[in-house]
Each structure stands twice: as structure tokens, then as C-alpha cells.
Design a protein that fits this description.
This protein is of the alpha+beta class. It is built from 14 helices and 27 strands. The strands form eight sheets. Strands 1, 2, 12, 13, 14, 15 and 27 form a seven-stranded mixed β-sheet that branches. A seven-stranded antiparallel β-sheet has the order 8-18-19-21-17-24-20. Strand 3 and strand 4 form a beta hairpin. Helix 2 runs parallel beside helix 6. The longest helix is centred in the last third of the chain and has 17 residues. It binds flavin-adenine dinucleotide and iron/sulfur cluster. The site of flavin-adenine dinucleotide has 42 residues, from helix 2, strand 6, strand 13, helix 7 and helix 13.
Length: 552
């Protein structure tokens, strides 16, 4: 075996620095490998994060439009996908809710026959929870109390729970004060105690949210991993005529934030980990299969994409003296039935742009009937309560007066992503969705939102894209490169090695093979911990790690 350090720039190149990527960076560095992380998003310091969502250029990621934030929305026919884009991936914008899914998810989907997942995963969930600094939320805000009162009113108060969160909330009432690293025996950075400003989703400006750049990625960099921010990977090719990657890979990158001087750079490595999120990894692999860089990627790519069957509803309490933005972004949840899970979500005071997307709560099956009903609801409200209707519609004060109810269903429903020329733009191929639409109307959720508004003396809310275009929004896109027994059923094996290639892994939300019914980041982290546990230490690598990756 040749000396890898001489032959390659890096042992491992990781594409993307989100949950999967950061775990891999830390664990591989710990095992003695020379690791690089290519991340197309920017690196953020707490003080650079936007104060409110009106600071659009620092919130949204659309570099071609000059927007260099950390949050992106991608529009498809079947779903609008919200995702993060930064050093630390989705952790910069996420609500920090870290929940384990019910045990049954491991016994459905293509991964179920491969091992006793419940037994295998328990140790990795425990590690992930420790690393992400999970605690039961100690800070309930007005939105959480309202969720609990409404749960009492509809008879499901026994299901009310405080979320488990990756937020530093010490018990000694030191909100806003700094503490020497409380998580990694002083090996990590200092933290500030959470001040309950409700801003987690806009990025924590107070160093209290346990983002990946403060744990996994921080430790990886400290132990030698090189992180390349604003570097987008555009190609990955096997080296030296070994089509299955046995001789390593060449990774091609460009600067993601430049229009013209894109400063292309190539790096060689022995092994590659795709961790670009479900959407990012699917998109990159489709492109690389199409241009014959990685032609052997399974035909199952893009299949079994799940969106957690989500619907966003809520309530606004115009003129309320309560400040509903207080608390943490996602402080509590309930189950209104066995399959339907609702979390109370808030935005920080002043972040009122979401108010442009909300409207009066409207029932009904999607289509023209629902749009007509919505128009009638608006008209009735305007005629009966003109002042209240105006106060409901104006964005100003929206975050202080509103609570979003994030409804997730664990019922299985999936769509597919393909690489095609859309009818409206036949000049090049894009990622396009197909299959059965995920429902945008969950009757029991609307019923709950109506009750919620009634208890608070407010008005129920739906989101406009769900009504007008029958397109649900989701922050939890998973699947598309699922774990399975062979390339006939999935894209990676149970150790997340890519079928058809050697020394190639996928560690992100794309490998998840069932609808979790809860927010997915903890499961992505635990799965990456498990996948990395099979990689031998570098000293033993020559003997152990050279085994061929599984093929179809
Ligand atoms: C507003 C919001 C709130 C959320 N709240 C929660 C929550 O409370 N709990 C929860 O569990 N989940 C939450 N999520 C979802 C969570 O963020 C994702 O599930 C999680 O981040 C996915 O992890 P990942 O490892 O798959 O990839 P990500 O964390 O998405 O990281 C992928 C990274 O890869 C980078 N990348 C993509 N393509 C390339 C490329 N070609 N080259 C280089 N880099 C690339 C991206 O920029 C990104 O930084 C939330 C999401 C949003 C948008
Ligand atoms: S509530 Fe505020 S201080 Fe606490 S973690 Fe969220 S953003 Fe940070």
C-alpha cells in the first residue's frame, strides 16, 4: 500500500458541513485521517447573523442574486423545500429540536431487513445526544403555555412535552452570561446561556444554540480537519482509470459566492463522503451520473424522497399584550392523534416577513374549491371585521403576535426526484419532482389551529402557497439515496457505502429510508456516527479499509 499522505491531498474529502458531514469530519480526524470539508455556504460568527428576517441579504442564500445568507427555499411542483447552507449546514438555521423517532420507523422501509436497527442505533443516539448537548427545554414561553391549554381543551394534554433541544440552558439562572465550555471538558468553545429571544431559526446571535461549528466541526478543526467555506463541489471523478474509485478520486470545486472569478480548484483524495443534504446530494449525484463522472450510481437515486407529511398552520393574536416570540424557537409539542404531531414554533421579535406568506385559516381539499373558499373567507372577514382583518394582514408585529403550528404526520407518503428538462425550460436538465402529491390539508391540524386561535382570542392562519398552489412546505426533506440491501432497492448499504464504488459514502438526510414523523437531525447525526464507527483507524487502514465497497 503506498503512503497515502504522499499520493493524495487528503485521505477523505467531505462534501457539505451539516450534521452528517460534521460527524464524519470529527470522527475521521479522530481516527488519524487527513480530512477536508468542502462547504458552499459561508462561515458565520454570532454577531454577523441578521437581527431580523428583514435583513434578507444576510438571511437568504441566493448568491447569484447577491444574497449570501444561510437559508434557502427551493420550489418544486410537489413541495417547497427549506434548507440551510453554511459552515455548520442546517444547524445555523435550525430550531435545535432533537427528537428520536418512534421505534417502528426502523421496521419499515428498505433498511428494515438489514439489521436490528433499534439495538444497533441506541448507542449512537446516546453519543449524538451527548455531542449535541441535548437537554429538555427549561424555558416555556407564552406560545408553549397556549399549546398546553389548547391540548387540554381538545383532550390530549397528556401528550404535551417539552422539546429536547441542543441549546445551552444551565439551571443556575445565568441567562446571557458566559460559561467556559460546559460540554467537552474545556476542549470546546465557551457558551452563553440562552436568553429565550425566540431567534434560533434566524441564527443564534448569543452563542447559546449548539450549532455544529461549536461541537463536531469545532473539534474536527481543532484536531486538524481543513474546512473550505464558499467552495462548491461540481465534479467527482475516479482517479487513474479505476472506474470504481479503487485508486482514489479527484474532486473539482469552484468559489460559490462569485459570479465570474470562480477560482476552480481540484483536490485528490482516497475516499469521498457526500454530505450535501438530501437535496444537495441527490442533485450532485444526478449531475455526476449524467456526465459520466460516476455512471454506476444506482438507478434508485431520487426514489423514496419523503417530506415528513408537513403542514404549516397557526394563529395570530392581533393587539395581544403577550409577546408570543418569547421562548425558544420550538419549545414544546403535542400529539393530537397517534400519527399527528404538532410543535409550537415562533420567530424572534421583528422577524415579520413570514407574515407575507400567511393568510386566514382555510379548510377544504386542494384545488379551485379551496381557493374559492379562501377568497370567501377573506371577503367575509373584511366585511364583518375590517379593522381586525387589516391588523391580521399587515406584516408589522407578526412575530410578536403569532404562533406557527408545525404539523408532522408519520404516515408514509413519498415523492420522487428526477433529472429532466422541465417543459417550461427545455435547454438544460434540472431536479424535478414527480409522483403523488403530499397532502397540504390535514383536517385534524386545521381543527386544532382553529381551537388554538379560539383559546388565545386570535384568528387561525394557513400559509398562502399551500392554498394557492397546493404545494406543502417542508424543512425536513429526507431520502433519495436510501439505505437498502442492494443497488436494486437503494443507493447505499447499511454502513452508508455507495453501491458500485469503493471508498465512497453518503452521510446525510438522503439515506433515511422511512418517514420519521419527528425532526430528522438527531437521526442523521446518529446514523453518521454509526457509519463512521465501521471505518478503521488510519494505522489499520491498509489492512481493513481496502475491502471493496459493495456492488449491486
Ligand atoms: C428553518 C429550519 C428549521 C429546522 N429546524 C429543525 C429542528 O428543529 N430539528 C431538526 O431535527 N431539524 C430541523 N431542520 C432540518 C435540519 O436543518 C436538516 O434536517 C439537517 O440540517 C440536514 O442535515 P444534513 O446533514 O442532511 O445536511 P445539511 O445540514 O443541510 O448540510 C448540508 C450542507 O452541504 C452544503 N452543500 C450542498 N451542496 C454542496 C456542494 N455541491 N458543495 C459543497 N457544499 C454543499 C450545504 O451548503 C449545507 O451546508 C430545520 C431546517 C430549517 C430550514
Ligand atoms: S432562544 Fe435566543 S438565545 Fe436561546 S438559543 Fe435561541 S436564539 Fe439563542
Amino acid at each position: 500500500m503506498p503512503d497515502q499522505q504522499e499520493k493524495f491531498d487528503f485521505d477523505f474529502i467531505i462534501i457539505g458541513s451539516g450534521f452528517g458531514g460534521s460527524v464524519c469530519a470529527h470522527r475521521l480526524t479522530e481516527k488519524g485521517y487527513k480530512v477536508a470539508v468542502m462547504e458552499m455556504g459561508r462561515r458565520w460568527n454570532p454577531e454577523d447573523l441578521p437581527r431580523t428576517s428583514w435583513s434578507v441579504h444576510r438571511w437568504f442564500w441566493r448568491p447569484r442574486l447577491g444574497l449570501r445568507g444561510f437559508f434557502n427555499m427551493r420550489f418544486f411542483r410537489h413541495v417547497t423545500i427549506y434548507h440551510g447552507c453554511a459552515v455548520g449546514g442546517g444547524s445555523i438555521t435550525y430550531g435545535a429540536t432533537l427528537l428520536q423517532p418512534p421505534r417502528e420507523v426502523w421496521t419499515s422501509g428498505t433498511w428494515s431487513p438489514l439489521c436490528d436497527w433499534n439495538t444497533s442505533m441506541s448507542q449512537h443516539y446516546a453519543t449524538a445526544e451527548r455531542m449535541l448537548g441535548i437537554t429538555e427545554n427549561q424555558i416555556l414561553g407564552p406560545a408553549d403555555y397556549l399549546l398546553r391549554s389548547t391540548a387540554e381543551a381538545v383532550g390530549c394534554s397528556q401528550t404535551f412535552y417539552r422539546t429536547k433541544v441542543g441549546i445551552f440552558q444551565p439551571s443556575d439562572n445565568t441567562a446571557g452570561q458566559t460559561h467556559a465550555d460546559p460540554f467537552f471538558s474545556q476542549q470546546g468553545p465557551p457558551r452563553w446561556a440562552c436568553i429565550a429571544c425566540g431567534g434560533c431559526i434566524m441564527g443564534c446571535r448569543y452563542g447559546a444554540k449548539n450549532t455544529l461549528d461549536l461541537n463536531y466541526l469545532y473539534l474536527a478543526e481543532k484536531h486538524g480537519a481543513s474546512v473550505f467555506p464558499e467552495r462548491k463541489v461540481v465534479d467527482v471523478k475516479p482517479l487513474d482509470g479505476s472506474p470504481a474509485g479503487g485508486n482514489g478520486y479527484e474532486v473539482y470545486t469552484v468559489r460559490s459566492t462569485s459570479w465570474f472569478a470562480r477560482n476552480p480548484q481540484q483536490f485528490t483524495c482516497r475516499a469521498v463522503v457526500f454530505s450535501a443534504s438530501a437535496l444537495g446530494t441527490m442533485e450532485l449525484l444526478f449531475r455526476l451520473r449524467e456526465k459520466h463522472s460516476l455512471p454506476a450510481i444506482s438507478p434508485q437515486l431520487g426514489k423514496h424522497v419523503r417530506t415528513n407529511s408537513e403542514s404549516l398552520i397557526g394563529a395570530r393574536m392581533p393587539g395581544s399584550t403577550e409577546d408570543y416570540s418569547q421562548g425558544i424557537s420550538i419549545g414544546s409539542g403535542i400529539y393530537i392523534d397517534a400519527h399527528t404531531h404538532i410543535e409550537a414554533v415562533r420567530y424572534p421579535r421583528g422577524s415579520d416577513t413570514m407574515g407575507l406568506l400567511t393568510t386566514v385559516l382555510t379548510d377544504g381539499e386542494p384545488g379551485s374549491g379551496r381557493i374559492a373558499l379562501w377568497a370567501r373567507n377573506i371577503l367575509t372577514s373584511l366585511l364583518r371585521h375590517p379593522i381586525r382583518s387589516w391588523r391580521m394582514a399587515r406584516p408589522s408585529g407578526w412575530a410578536r403576535e403569532s404562533v406557527i403550528l408545525l404539523c408532522m404526520q408519520a404516515l408514509d407518503g413519498e415523492i420522487q426526484m428526477d433529472w429532466r428538462r422541465p417543459w417550461f425550460w427545455p435547454f438544460r436538465k434540472f431536479l424535478v419532482s414527480s409522483g403523488q402529491k403530499v397532502p397540504t390539508y390535514i383536517p385534524q391540524a386545521n381543527h386544532f389551529a382553529r381551537k388554538f386561535a379560539e383559546v388565545a382570542g386570535g384568528t387561525g392562519m394557513s400559509t398562502l402557497p399551500e392554498i394557492l398552489f397546493d404545494v406543502p412546505g417542508t424543512a425536513h426533506c429526507i431520502g433519495g439515496c436510501v439505505i437498502a440491501d442492494s443497488a436494486t432497492h437503494g443507493v447505499v448499504d447499511s454502513q452508508q457505502r455507495v453501491f458500485g464504488y469503493q471508498n465512497m459514502y453518503i452521510c446525510d438526510g438522503s439515506v433515511i429510508a422511512a418517514n420519521l414523523g419527528v425532526n430528522p437531525s438527531l437521526t442523521i447525526t446518529a446514523l453518521a456516527e454509526r457509519a463512521m464507527s465501521f471505518v478503521p483507524e488510519k494505522a489499520r487502514e491498509a489492512n481493513d479499509h481496502a475491502s471493496p465497497a459493495p456492488t449491486a
